[in-house]
Task: inverse folding
């Protein structure tokens, strides 16, 4: 199981890298262009490309981060693997729920 989690975390890191680069690039572009949050949202609402982009970003983060949290709990806090796994899963589920809500709001799917 540990080898699979290791491989899955590395795979999601590779998936996340382009998302992070595009997201940071867009933030820099928006800030330098003087765009307000409202202007940014008006450009993203209803745009299925950005909904899919950030949806996949959230999904990859929701898999990647809990594996790291689990490892920290095991290695640094000496929490047993079963308990650390439950905490990691709960953390991942929370990230997923919050992320999906954010994507829905960004895409204008939630009013």
Result:
């Amino acid at each position: 199981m540990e080898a699979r989690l290791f491989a899955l975390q590395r795979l999601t890191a590779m998936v996340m890298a382009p998302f992070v680069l595009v997201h940071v690039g867009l933030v820099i572009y928006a800030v330098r262009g003087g765009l307000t949050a409202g202007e940014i949202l008006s450009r993203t609402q209803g745009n299925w490309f950005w909904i899919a982009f950030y949806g996949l970003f959230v999904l990859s983060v929701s898999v990647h981060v809990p594996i790291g949290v689990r490892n920290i709990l095991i290695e640094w806090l000496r929490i047993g693997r079963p308990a650390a796994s439950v905490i990691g899963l709960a953390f991942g589920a929370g990230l997923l729920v919050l992320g999906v809500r954010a994507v829905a709001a960004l895409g204008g799917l939630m009013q």
Summary: The helical segments are 2-32, 37-44, 48-75, 81-106.
